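Let us work through a complete example step by step.
Step 1: write down the sequence.
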Amino acid sequence: MLALQAAPHDIDVSWRGVEGCAQRGFQDSLEAYLVGGTRQRAVQVTVEVQRSGERWAVRLELVTDGVRSARELSGDSCAEVSSAAAFITAVLVDPGTLGRAELEAGATPLVPEPAAPVRVPPVAVEPAGVGVEVAVSPAARPDEVAVRPVAAPPPSRPASRSLAGFVRIAGGFEALGAPGIGAQVGGAGGLLGRRWRVELTGMYRAPSTQSSAVDPQAGARVGLWTVGTRGCGVLRPAMLEVVLCGGIEAGQVLGEGVGFAGKRRDRFAWLAGTLGPALAWAPRRWFALWLGVDLAVPVLGGEFAAEGLGTLYKIAPVSIRAGLGLEARFF
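Step 2: predict the structure and record it as tokens.
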């Protein structure tokens, strides 16, 4: 992710490129369009570049003044679509960009060579609905961009649409919450923002057996389940999101005796605080691969014991989990 902070503009750019289409072209065009500007607005822009054969496509998402809009561009080269995306972004940052481009158009012949231009659908640059249509030549230099004002309706999507819902399922391993290291499965769902997420979580740890120190043939078979909630901060370097979460969970530790007379089942409450980092790789807006590690610290102790065998298993001070999962996102 690149944050352009060249004063006085405030532009937060998230670039998702492909091989052969570098972010530098978009950045250079954007800086060229903004030269001489006097009015600025803070803009968040996500540029997602794709290539299919000889054709290039860009999905452009822009957020300004709490309003989100999206545009899809296509052309014959990375330079074409990058320049068009940069011009639309510049108009949102400084609407005066449109007037400066028209002045340059009056002094310089536009698109001197015949070519099929890239046509960009109208994009609103003011709440009142002023728009611009852009035509970019294959050379895609800033002075070869033809513009004209058009009527465009104001964006109809409310700011709340910047949120996304998600569900995740994961599997991995847990240690110390139950004897040894055992398999665990978990799930989560909640809301996802640009820099944060809120999750409702659930986890089940498959039972495993701890043998008695007095009689190795006897022991306790112990499992664990939890539900919880947590909040997370999210960093977004391109497609890779770095997540740090903290929260609280509650559940039950389930145990039963094995290998001795009079064995019985028992359970006690589990309450713990949780903290852990994760990585989410999101090659598409609606899909992510999740890798997380969590540390849970129980605030309630407990142990399983049997007469003549003493303590069979005692809950450790921490529970360590690691999981790999798939996450679906809904915008």
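Step 3: interpret the result. The chain has three helices and 18 strands.
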